[in-house]
């Protein structure tokens, strides 16, 4: 079997995960096999919002969205366009801790480069 083959979780693996972490385990039964899906509980979800400004270059915004938020160029362009035309756009919904980190890094990078690009935290 190839090293790149993804192996399904065994019942023992699932039990170990539930005992050693705060992950929630759900089971979906199909005719052929049991599919285990894992949802990580990381707390309250929050929305990262991008605000339009008249100073930050559009291409710079696209780069920040792609580099930090791991968005495709197409998705980053759509979000930047929405913020430009509507004043604000949702970038991503993620756990609050992760959202705060992303916002801080994005703000820091923008300020270091001399731009007032603004991201804020909203409720999920």
Sequence-ordered SSE layout with sheet pairings:
Blueprint: H1 11-20, E1 24-29, E2 34-39, E3 45-51, H2 58-69, H3 73-86, E4 88-95, H4 96-112, E5 118-123
Description:
It is a single chain. The strands form 2 sheets. The chain has a 3-stranded antiparallel beta sheet. Strands 1-2 form a two-stranded antiparallel ribbon. It has 2 domains: 1-41, no CATH class; 45-123, Ribosomal protein L7/L12, C-terminal domain/Adaptor protein ClpS (Ribosomal Protein L30, Chain: A, 2-Layer Sandwich). It is 43% helix and 27% strand. It is globular and about 35 Å long. The chain is of the alpha+beta class. Strand 1 and strand 2 (34-39) form a beta hairpin. The chain is built from 4 helices and 5 strands; from the N terminus they run H-E-E-E-H-H-E-H-E.
Mind telling me the CATH superfamily name of the largest domain? Ribosomal protein L7/L12, C-terminal domain/Adaptor protein ClpS
Order of H and E elements? HEEEHHEHE
Radius of gyration from CA coordinates: 19 Å
Enumerate how many helices there are, as a single number. 4
Low-confidence stretches: 1-7, 17-42
